[in-house]
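Work package 3, deliverable 3.1, input record:
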Amino acid sequence: MDNTAYRYYDVRRVRGEATHIDIDNTRIELAGSVFYDTALIRVLGEFGWGVLSLDGEMVGDIATREKLPLELIQKALHAAKLTNERIEISETASGMRAIPAMKEDPRASSLEEKAETLLDIEKHAKKDEIVSTRLGYIEKTEQISFASSHGDEYEYELVRSGFSVMAVSRRGSLSQMGYNREHTISGIQLRTKHHLAAEAADRAVKLLDAKPAKGGKMKAILDPELAGVFAHEAVGHAAEGDLVKEGSSVLENYIGKKIGPKELTVIDDPTLEQFGFCPVDDEGTKTECTEIISHGVMHAYLHSKETLAADIGYGIAGHSRGMPGDVPIVRMSNTFIAPGECSYDELIESCRDGILLIGSRGGQVDPGRGIFQFNAEYGYLIENGEVGQMVRDVSLSGEILTTLHAITHIGDDLTFSAGFCGKSGQSVPVSDGSPHILLSDAIVGGSDV
Amino acid sequence: MAGSFDFDYHAAAEVVEAILKKAAPLVDEAEVYLGISESLSADLKRDKISIGSNSSGSAVSIRVIKDGKIGVSSTDSTMFWEKCLSAAISSAHLSDTQPWGGLPSGTHEKEGNLSFDSSLTPDSALLGDLIDRMRSGAESEPGAVITGGGASFSSRYSVLANTNGLYNTNKSTTASIMLEAIADQSTGYESDSQYQLSALDPERVGETAAWFCVHGQNGEEVKTGSYDIVLAPEAFSSLLEATLIPALSGRSVHMNRSVFVGKMNEMVAPEQLSLYDHGMDTRSIFRCPWDGEGTSISHLPLIEKGKLVSYYYDLKSAYLFGEKTTGNAVRYGANSLSSGLHNVVFEGPTMDVMDEKCIYARDVVGAHTANPMTGDFSVELSSPFFAEGGALQRPIKTAMLSGNVFDMLHALVGCSKESRIFPRMIIPSVRCAGMSVIGRG
């Protein structure tokens, strides 16, 4: 084969084992493991990418192999013949960051011990008016090996573990739900999580007395979890270089423009020891922090090798991630609003009359239209500068650009929450963070209008 | 790139046989699902193909039952089958005992193959042609800029077998296309997925994506208030999937996580509405005569003329709660076996849903954030329009819809005569009266 037929190739093999435990109303419903070994080869042909997804064993030991088997490169090149867009890529910085040491290796305890601990935790959710409880545990160990024709080679192992608890309350025909979760790369310490079950149950019971929220335009304080989702959904996705390149982002051509108050800085930092930590990205680029919005000004997009070369606006590569066996695409990692100077009490006082939104049931964005929507788990009315009646089923939607300008106060209490982000059918671990923030003129959803 | 999708059926059979042979003396019953698949796809970025992908994969899922304890494990590599079997047996040791009445039995090999098109091949020229035709459809609306999309062909072969003699095989094919377009800040998308290549309509996909983005420009704001809403099948199905469908799960009901607890044989919707699961409906895109455990599937009324008449169960949940399986074990990928619906069909009184003044929404943003326990939701509308006289009249810039899905069924005044056929649903457009809309006007 003529080696000049490809301009670049890389191969990523992921071997992994995921362990799940599902406790449903004091029954161990499931306690099992999933094993996987998958590889993805990308080859840049005359025009675009040729991609081959296959069993990991077929690429062998990447670390000891000088080159990929030509047969596999040819297969990927064959797929590249479908393409008609000339893709260029940038050479990017190499290097892998050290994997943070775990505080406690969750693999050290047996499946039986974890199941027993979960059953013990579940007891803390059993309260009056709680009619159903469910707990889940996941522990995933992955060995990732990577090599590219640029000479980059990496191998590392990362363990992610997490826990969730749900409690359902009922009074007559009314049901409500309380939920808590925690995911980490530091090794989850299950035996210290009993309080999360108690909190979920307490909240489910309190929500039975909460009023449905009244929808409309109002001042809203977002707690760190929900404000983190806002940073992720409203800012992070629209700053992804691939969406900008495709013309699917409302933030296209916004580099250097003022898009929020000068107190607002939004960052994506894959180097942080949070759930979205990446020691190196999935196309072999060294990971670095990117300030997406710096002091109210759109500063940078998140890039891959391809979007960096496309010259669509400032930013750095190192933000490319893929699920095992899937093509890496531009993704966030740990996305957060940098802390400001307001205390929580000052925020409540500044709001005077509005709503405090707490927790997240997830969100979604249409980055091309610039519209986002997300749901809080619950909230409280704020009346005369005091936190008042609890409300349920409250959500927030809005236009990205309008809402960024509507941020009037940023708190000083930055907190991260871990979760998963879906894009193009791929789900990757991320964390979102923020202090409390105050929005003027927020569009709050509630069934009572 | 042509040829055909070709699998090593013999090797697959050998792995299945080896697993069952090794498992049989160790457990009371064992079940193996083995799937192998291949696909070829092309991804559009803007209006050019930037990625060509060729993928092959396999999956093995093993379930064992020993003394009423169920163990599971799965892998994406047939090489790990022994490790996987060992993990499934360990898993059974740890799980709690439950009543168990046995896996389905069989006496001879059965073939499904109802959604298989032998003429679908990994032909790159055909993929390119589909993309050209989508682009051509999009050109019918000047001003639409394609931002992404793609086309893919895939084929899958699966074996479902157990130690009770069940041995079912199924071949299936899927041809999918999708296009996204934008005009200023107005977006549009459309997709189509069929098992037969000839059933795809790429020009319509291109035209629809382009129509919504071009005609959605310069939308006006709507005032907060109460409106009659028409939800297109895309929008209505998203809300049903997030709320009503999980609430009909037997497990959810028995575990007190459903609004339908204690509601069997009660009216839960107006008398004209029915919802059933019909995986063998001839209109359904993907059909298989059995569920994920090998139980034959049948027409299952869930809500009949407004009355709740059944929940859905797989074997595990049916045995646990003293019920009979309704043939509703589903495998979303080989790693997950759970109870679910095969092909949801929603029926109600038909009418011209857009004759009278209303707000139309093609889809909703954030349906998954609805409260599954109560059915309460607040979603942003996608491609909203003011509609009247049977047509979309003026685009709306932004609007949020809030309500409760179960209450919304009672506010439903009619369904369109035509239903949209999705891969797992057949759903009409619905008109609901007096819904809460939060606007910025």
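Chain A has a mean pLDDT of 95.
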